[in-house]
Structures are given as C-alpha cells and as structure tokens.
Write a structure and sequence with these properties.
By secondary structure, the protein is mainly alpha-helical. Helices cover about 65% and strands about 5% of the residues. It contains 9 helices and 2 strands, in the order E-E-H-H-H-H-H-H-H-H-H.
C-alpha cells in the first residue's frame, strides 16, 4: 500500500495514502517557504544567469556589481538583479532563524552552511555568515552535531553487521544527553534493533 508523508522543519504534518493528501495541507506546508527568485536576465548576461542557476550566488552578485558599474540600462538591470540576490539571502536567513527556533536547529545549521558556501564571501551574505558563527558558538547545537555524528557512526556499525555495538553506542549517547533533541533520534534508532538480539 503506498504511503506518503508531508514533512516541514522535521515535523510530520500529514501521513497516509498519497491520493488522500489534501492540497490545502501542501499549501500550509509551503507557507513561508523561500523560493529561489526567477533569474530572468536579458541576453548578454548569460554567464551570470548560468552562475545563478548553478547556485554560485556570490560569484554572480560580484559579476553583477561589475556590470552595474557600467551604468546605463545594463547597470539598471544588474542593480535590480543584485537586489534580488540580496533579497534571497535575507529571506533565507530569516527562514533559517525560524527553522532553528521552531523546528530542527541542526537542520537549519547544516542548511545555512550550504547556503553560505553558495554565497561565498559576498558582502550581501554577511548576516547569513553571522548567523552561522553564532550557532557555531552555541553549546547546545554542538551537542546536537556530536549526536548526529554518533548516529552516523552507528549507521556505519549496522552496515558492518555490528548491531549490538551500534545499539550500545546509541543508548549511551541518549543517556549522556537526555534533554537533547538528538537523544530522541538516538533512542528511536536503537529501538529498531531490539529484536535483532
């Protein structure tokens, strides 16, 4: 029987048969989602458009700034495009803050690092980099990253056939950090192997 899940920020919003998923639930899940802007640029901006589609936002923004310095209609097009890139960076930063506070902070951190790589050292992404720097200093997020690494190691142990070692590692981790979000994931993963003994 087919089964589908609608997940937002690590929370299952709906589950059931795919044909029974109401469109209103999809719209609800997508509310507030940051969509990449339409990078509609005129001919002559092909290399910049290609960089944007390859998610090289920082590189594209710097190239647009160079084109904007030329002035005229080309400069206006470049200026508007830079503002779309800047607006996208700001929207992503806002959405990641919301995700971290109401959803999964580790997912938000990982996503932020991925976006930061796409924006590089472009000055318009400074708030995003500042967000990451703050999270890197957050001790609770450090624990979540540690638990995530341990869960990955337990997965490797399972693939190697060391089920009991994986289970012990997961339970020890959950016991050491009982209040961490990752502890619940570790316990749930360990619980899958109860019948394997």
């Amino acid at each position: 029987m087919p089964r589908a899940y609608l997940i937002r920020r690590g929370t299952i919003l709906w589950e059931g048969h795919p044909e029974e998923l109401p469109p209103s639930r999809i719209e609800e899940a997508l509310a507030g989602t940051v969509l990449e802007p339409d990078w509609d640029l005129p001919p002559g901006f092909d290399r910049i458009r290609a960089a944007l589609h390859r998610k090289l936002f920082g590189l594209a923004a710097r190239a647009l700034a160079d084109r904007g310095a030329a002035g005229g209609s080309e400069g206006q097009v470049a200026g508007r495009a830079i503002e779309r890139v800047r607006g996208y960076a700001e929207a992503i930063t806002r959405e990641l803050r919301v995700c971290a506070s109401s959803g999964d902070p580790l997912l938000a951190f990982r996503s932020a690092r991925s976006y930061a790589a796409a924006f590089g050292d472009w000055e318009g992404a400074a708030p995003l980099r500042g967000l990451i720097e703050g999270w890197e200093r957050d001790p609770s997020l450090a624990i979540e990253r540690e638990i995530s690494s341990i869960i990955d190691r337990a997965s490797d142990l399972v693939r190697e056939g060391q089920i009991e070692a994986a289970r012990a590692l997961l339970l020890e981790t959950a016991k050491a950090h009982p209040d961490a979000r990752g502890a619940a994931r570790a316990r749930a993963f360990a619980g899958r192997f109860v019948d394997w003994r």
